[in-house]
């Protein structure tokens, strides 16, 4: 049996990495000992190496359950680039391709076989795999197994039966997001006895966390995209129509933007996803139908145009940025309409009372993260049961957000809600408190109310912010699911009567939009000397990738190109010391990149 000494040597020789990332060594050591493993490791921590390296070390066939055809194809290409024999079985295979894969499998030529959970659920394939002598089963995106997870897929629930058909082979389950309840459900569904569990820190220090209340959202989104104008990013939206609107708006602004949602044809979705995966500088405006298993390491930003449904989904989605460990930006926009919509979706869902209770708890945690006044990262990690101090880098740490006693302001809002019949929305309430005699105010006679003009000392925007925070805090509730408006909750009555005080976050006044950056994403490791060479190498990478029909990052990652630009290797030996340059890639690309560096006159 291969040991960790051999594993470290293979890590460098095959993948070009000097050492394991946090958590990888523990998982690989357990795998090499033959243990079942459940690993919860954040996106970008290198989960795939935890089954790729053992498969190369100890031979035999590892079957990898993968959720997307595009991801399977990318991983097969990546394995070919580093010299590991791999193939995939999915609906895109022709008959000849399928026969070739089966022949290689039965001849013992493959180390890795990527299969969809739907395909693997069929008894005939499992029997063929058992005949081929499968050594282990690796389940990617394992949170899909759990009925309590945010992305439950029933076909994943069949994998325990598949494991039995394969003779009870060693099984590795990997995911980036799983709270304690979800982990317990995964373990009980997949493993006959408790597995070796590895739970790594959920902290992604390279991700900048920023939340903003919606205020001209198209401008807020375009500001982020413009700052990363030569880099790839994702903009998530809550509806199909909104993805197309966003993609069209960004295209008009001069960005290369595409849409992705379940209402598009399979061919159009595949085409847009391929462009995003294979090229630089592409923005994907998408619903959450896009992203699971996306293996692109150099996504520089993720924007949520609408508030996510829960923290697990939010964490999974922002995790698609900065997988290469370089700085990446995230922005989440949210508003009252988002909060009300998400609550209605839960209440209208055909699910049991226990399921709705859990979903409401998760939504409340998401709303709390939007409105929290302390460190954003600290609050996020606390949700996953991880203690930490203030990060000093998120928007709240940088902006010094504070809580202040807002009981009087809250009482003015609550009084306005009560006096107007508990059926009007935030805009009407703000106008009333500001003393704005709008047509609607006059038509309802609200200019004669005691609360008319009681809040002239605050801006309309500030009152809208107070209303949003009162709703988020459960002091107000939606009066009517169809027509909207607000009503007092029991807690709201307590605050109105002075029986409870209330602190709210101080609402900052809007500032000027950040200026556009003259170049793409800012990279802290590049300066005026290295940046031109990096861009030169990046262009070469894209040319090679197009010639070979693979994604650009399959050739080399941005991180590897940055190190080349910094170190400027002049020999193959020096090139082999660059992170991410293993033996196979050195042989295939070493000379051409050395020549590009030598010829560059930036």
UniProtKB/TrEMBL annotation:
Cofactor field: Zn(2+); Mg(2+)
Domain HRDC: 527-602
Classification via Gene3D superfamilies: HRDC domain, P-loop containing nucleotide triphosphate hydrolases, Winged helix-like DNA-binding domain superfamily/Winged helix DNA-binding domain
Annotated spans, Disordered: 508-528
EC number annotated for this UniProt entry: 5.6.2.4
One Gene Ontology term of the molecular function aspect: DNA helicase activity
Domain of life, source organism: Bacteria
Record field: catalytic activity: Couples ATP hydrolysis with the unwinding of duplex DNA by translocating in the 3'-5' direction
Keyword line: ATP-binding, DNA damage, DNA recombination, DNA repair, DNA-binding, Helicase, Hydrolase, Isomerase, Metal-binding, Nucleotide-binding, Zinc
Class of this enzyme: isomerase
A Pfam family: Helicase_C
Boundaries of every Helicase C-terminal domain copy: 220-364
Residues in Helicase ATP-binding domain copies: 28-196
Recorded family membership: Belongs to the helicase family. RecQ subfamily.
Name the UniProt record assigns to this protein: DNA helicase RecQ
Organism of this sequence: Terrihabitans rhizophilus
């Amino acid at each position: 049996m291969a040991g960790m000494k051999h594993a470290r040597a293979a890590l460098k020789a095959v993948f070009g990495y000097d050492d394991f990332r946090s958590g990888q060594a523990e998982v690989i050591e357990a795998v090499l000992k033959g243990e079942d493993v459940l690993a919860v490791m954040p996106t970008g921590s290198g989960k795939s190496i935890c089954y790729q390296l053992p498969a190369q070390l100890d031979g035999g066939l590892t079957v990898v359950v993968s959720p997307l055809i595009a991801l399977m194809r990318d991983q097969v290409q990546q394995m070919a680039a580093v010299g590991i024999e791999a193939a995939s079985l999915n609906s895109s295979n022709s008959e000849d391709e399928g026969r070739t894969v089966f022949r290689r499998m039965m001849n013992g030529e493959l180390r890795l076989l990527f299969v969809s959970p739907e395909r693997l659920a069929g008894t005939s394939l499992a029997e063929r795999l058992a005949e081929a002598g499968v050594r282990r089963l690796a389940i990617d995106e394992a949170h899909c197994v759990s009925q309590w997870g945010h992305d439950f897929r029933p076909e994943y629930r069949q994998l325990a039966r598949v494991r039995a058909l394969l003779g009870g082979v060693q099984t590795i389950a990997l995911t980036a997001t799983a709270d304690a309840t979800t982990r317990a459900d995964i373990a009980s569904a997949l493993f006959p006895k408790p597995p070796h569990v590895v739970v790594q820190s959920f902290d992604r220090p390279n991700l900048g966390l920023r939340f903003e209340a919606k205020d001209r959202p198209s401008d807020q989104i375009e500001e982020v995209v413009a700052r990363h104008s030569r880099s790839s990013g994702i903009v998530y939206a809550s509806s199909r129509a909104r993805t197309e609107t966003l993609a069209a708006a960004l295209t008009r602004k001069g960005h290369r933007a595409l849409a992705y949602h379940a209402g598009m044809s399979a061919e159009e979705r595949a085409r847009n996803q391929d462009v995003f995966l294979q090229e630089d500088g592409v923005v994907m405006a998408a619903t959450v139908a896009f992203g699971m298993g996306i293996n692109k390491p150099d996504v520089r930003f993720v924007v949520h145009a609408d508030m996510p449904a829960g923290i697990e989904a939010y964490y999974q989605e922002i995790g698609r940025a900065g997988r290469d460990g370089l700085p990446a930006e995230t922005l989440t926009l949210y508003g009252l309409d988002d909060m009300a919509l998400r609550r209605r979706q839960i209440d209208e869902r055909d699910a049991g009372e226990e399921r709705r209770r859990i979903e409401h708890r998760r939504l409340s945690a998401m709303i709390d993260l939007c409105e929290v006044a302390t460190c954003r990262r600290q609050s996020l990690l606390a949700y996953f049961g991880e203690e930490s101090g203030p990060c000093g880098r998120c928007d709240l740490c940088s902006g010094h957000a504070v809580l202040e006693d807002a009981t009087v302001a809250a009482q003015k809002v609550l009084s306005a809600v009560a006096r107007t019949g508990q059926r009007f929305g935030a805009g009407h309430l703000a106008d009333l408190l500001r003393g704005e005699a709008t047509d609607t105010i006059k038509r309802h006679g609200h200019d004669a109310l005691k609360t008319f003009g009681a809040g002239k000392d605050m801006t309309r925007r500030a009152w809208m912010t107070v209303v949003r925070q009162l709703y988020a805090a459960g002091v107000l509730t939606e009066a009517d699911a169809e027509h909207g408006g607000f009503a007092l909750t029991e807690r709201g009555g307590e605050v109105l009567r002075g029986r409870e005080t209330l602190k709210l976050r101080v609402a900052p006044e809007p500032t000027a939009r950040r200026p556009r950056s003259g170049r793409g994403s800012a990279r802290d490791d590049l300066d005026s000397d290295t940046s031109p060479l990096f861009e030169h190498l990046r262009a070469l990478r894209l040319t090679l990738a197009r010639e070979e029909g693979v994604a650009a990052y399959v050739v080399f990652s941005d991180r590897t190109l940055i190190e080349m630009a910094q170190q400027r290797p002049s020999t193959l030996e020096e090139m082999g010391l660059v992170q991410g340059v293993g033996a196979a890639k050195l042989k295939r690309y070493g000379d051409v990149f050395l020549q590009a560096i030598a010829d560059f006159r930036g």
